[in-house]
Each structure stands twice: as structure tokens, then as C-alpha cells.
Amino acid sequence: MSKYQKVIDWINQNIDNGALRPGEKIPSENELCEQFGLSRQTVRHAILKLSEDGLLESRRGSGTYVADQHAEEGKRSVVAVVTTYVDDYIFPSTIRGIESTLSAKGYSMQLSFTNNTTDKERQILEDLLTRDDIAGVIMEPVKSALPNPNMPLYHKMQAKGMKVLFINSYYPELDFPHVSINDEECAYRAVKAMVEAGHKSIGCVLKLDDGQGRERYRGYIRAMTECGLSFTYDHVNWIDTIDIKDGKRALLRVKERLSGCTAVFCYNDQVAGMLMQVLIDDGLKLPGDMSVIGMDDSDMAKIGVGGVTISSIPHPKARLGEKAANNMIRLIHSTGKYCNATYEFEENVILRQSVAKLSY
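User: That's the sequence. What structure does it adopt?
Assistant: C-alpha cells below.
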């Protein structure tokens, strides 16, 4: 991390949590130098970057203040928000977080859904490219682990100078910022929690067509390798969006491939719950015969399956929506060539009944 980044992160955090409000003066350069043990030149560099991002404004002879990033009268004030679904357990809270934050800053939200299909995504992108009232686009990618035929449309948006920010995942080919959870780190923590509970043979069930699945696989591998545990690809299971819609039937083959495992890390709570039901129907005792961890900390995790509540990593949902909206507003007001609007949440495991402690 660059030295000046510490100052940037501190000011960003205090603006986000309301400790520094629009119009309020930030600490002086001397105070920041003393607080962070940095040179005046380094602190000035941080303030310059935040000013280019539209977050701060300097007043001659007075100091530096938090800029008011409300929508400006007569300028574009509509933010297009495009998600894959609306009725999934994550999206209502995320959308509310986006809308409330945009509304507080004088922006309105236009909401669309792709149903996780490239055809619908293309229709939406083509429409957005014709609009002249859009200030920015908050977009959830479609099947972000797979090649996407709509890349030329995203490149057109980039060439047009449209402000685009991805949520939950991103397309690696595009140089757009994203707000998401740190999928690799969260998966790493989930697998480490099972290792700390005494498990050595740990499988996984991950989503093939979304970028989150790819990153969670990185976390799974990192944890297993770091802990000195071997794994076989027989225990690495990939499913896709259609498999999840099919329900338990798609997880029957997964059950066979987990033979010899005492624990399994699942892509999310929905997959964890379906797998647990398949295992219970097959006569296994949970968590005695198989420990399970999911992701998202949904209502399903708290209610459980077969009387067993599900250990899970929380999804920040509303907080992610708020952060995405705040970072989009910063992109809109940015005057610099680059605005660091990427942010990844790191969450910890909530252990429940689905993880058994083993002793050897």
C-alpha cells in the first residue's frame, strides 16, 4: 500500500460513516502529517487525489473541505441499476441500500434486470447507449466467469466516457471498478474454519458460470495448500445456474463425488441447503457425517435444514448497496482520469450447528 493511501482510506471511511460531513473542514495538513507520521508532500498527494475524485475541495486561505456531492440542477441525475435478479435473497436489501443512498444525494434510480442472460443484458446495454440522461450505471455482470458476447457494447460505453461500476462480480477484461465481497478471502476463511474444527478431507461445490465461483475456488485452494492438506479434483464440484434452478436433482452426483470427505464448502446457502437435504435423504447424519459451510448468511442458514442451522459467511447486502451508490456518486463527480471506486468487503464465518468438531 502506498503511504498516501492510508490518508485516503481514513478520509473515505470517515466520509462514509458520517464522521466527516459535506461542507465540513478536514484536519489540516500538519495534523494529518502528525497523525499518520507522513511528510507534508505525501499528505498533499492524498488530498490532491481525493480532490480529483470530487470528494474534497480546497478553499484559498481557509483549508480543505468535504465536497457536497449532491446531484447538480440541470445535469444528468439518473443512475441506471441493473441486477441479474430481483427476488433472490440478496438483491432486495442491496437495491434498497442503493436507492436510499442515491435519493439522499438527489439522484433517481432506474432499475432493470437481466435474469442472468446475455440476451437481456444486450437489450439493456443498447438502450443505455442511446440515453443522454444517464449519469452512471451500476451493473451486475451476467455469468462473469464465461466469455461474454456483449463486450463490444461495454467497450462502446467506455469510449463514450460513461461511468460504470460493477457489483458482486466483474468482467476481468474490463477496466471498470467494482464493489463486491472479497470472494477469495471469504472462501479462504470458511475453509480455514473447517480445518480449525479438525477436518482434513474437505470438498467444495462451486458455481461454474459466475466469477464469484472462480474467486471462491482460489480461496479454497489457498486454504488447503497453506494448511498442508491435499485434495483431489474428485472433491471439487462445479454446478451452474441451471443446476441450481433444477434443485436437489443436480446435487445427487455431487454427493457421490464427496465420498471420503468430512466437510464441504458450498458456493452459497441455497446450494448448502439443497446438498444437506440430499445427504439427509440418503441417511447421513449432519453434521456428524458431513460438515457444511455456505455463504450469504441467509434466512435459510438461520432456519436450517433438517433441524441443523447452517454455518455461513455473511453477505453485506444493504452495506454493499450503500457503498456502490456512494462510489458511483464519486465517479460522477470525479475530475481525474482515474477514480479508485473499487471496494471489497471481508466478512468472517458465523459458525452454527452444521460444523462438527473432530478430534484425532
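The chain has three domains: 3-66, 78-181+317-345, 183-314.
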